[in-house]
Amino acid sequence: MTIKTILIDDERKALAILKNKLERLCPNVEVIAETQNPKEGIELIKTLKPDLIFLDIAMPELSGFDVLKQFENPDFEIIFATAFDNYAIEAIKHCAIGYLVKPVDNTDLVTAINNAEANIEEKSSLVKNKQLIENLGIQTFQKKKIIIPSVEGLEFVKIEDILHCEGETGYTKIHLKTGKPLLSSNSIGHFNKLLESSNFYLVHKSHLINLSYIEKYLNEGYVILTGNKKIPVSRNRRQEFLEQLKS
Amino acid sequence: MLKGELNINNIILILSVVALLIVVSTVYLFTTFNNRKNKLIQEQLESKLNNQKRQHELELNALRAQMNPHFVHNSLNAIQYYIQLNEVEKSEDYLAKFSKLMRQFFEYSRKQSISIENEILLLKNYLDIEKLRFEDDFDFKISVSKNLDTEELFLPPMVLQPILENAINHGVFHKKGKGEVSITFSSINETSFKVEVTDDGIGINKTKAMKKAKDQTTHTEHSSFVLEERLALLKESKKWDVEFTIVDRLDVSEQTGTKVTLIFKED
Asked: What are phi and psi for residue A33, nearest 5 degrees?
């Protein structure tokens, strides 16, 4: 399958580097257009209807997110590119969308293209992009939704509905306020990175809890969450955890 | 009648005195209470500020311990070497690794502690870059004892990397032929563990003699000073107790090289 691709980055050198790497490492990617001007990028996407766009986040005038917001039905796959922006990366990760950090690592690029190809075949780009647009408009982080790929497809879960996550070997169980827990093949470390700035805390190597649902802390090293759930707090994490609770 | 009037006057007088006393003491109590409250708030604020200050010092110190300008420029220089040789993929690979390491440095130096598991990932990344620089002249080995819980034991960030850097600069740089650095993590008990960094270089005695002969302060001295300062700050923070020993291997065995032992105890 040939992936018709448009590159958007305000830096000419970044475009050249990416194009060169794609030509060398990803023979199934066909760059059909490239631009330093985000507004022109929007027009190019509308007329050329690419499968994939590489989109820089920090650009003057229009950011990568602003470009995305211009579309009512953004049914193209996106790989965001950024030099350094934790907040933006987190927002992208929440929606399980691809991203690369610059300077781009060759192995990471190939992996991102393989994932993009799978997403294009599954036609999952539209719903993810729409969720990202929605999240960007929501101020309170607990009201945002994260997308969890599962065996059946994609699960959309509001952050405030997650009680805690439990890591098992090879998968993570996501316990919700109501209903059956979800299973994800991602590690608990992945969820920790995804949720740590949304008031979650890894109290144990296999327990990530939503701090909004703590009802009690027991000195012997447990927290009780809403619904009478008893979660162990590992010894070496207690001090920092208690400091976090106080602040 | 007169007696009664006197009594009433007396009562009025006593009542006014009592009322006055109540007012005065209320005002007094209120002001002292207020003063105390203000003082308490002031004290709390000060201790909070002090804590913040200490935290910032630790962060800054961690960053300084890491960002050894020699390492940064040596790496960039090595990248330039591969560019000159026209080894595109190798240069790209080196550059991307270097950039990832910088990201980790920035991320971890803000944290109070990181798990052994994450520390090992960072060290591996760092050592891979050094390996690109020295090519076949350098090798490393990281061993972790089986009973060590690398996910549940933590250490202050950016303590081990400067020690490794020293080991490489003595163990490999001043040596003819191949040099090897080995790092061993082993468990002591539930809250403490030991890290040993061993190189097979010329040893700390000879290094010191060389420096004396040259009569110069090398960056090694600078980084060991930063390390000492950092360990002292950590101790002061009352969260960590790190025992640090350094020996010349010739003093205790037949082999040359330096061995650094660190024992981490979480308070």
From this structure: -165, 155
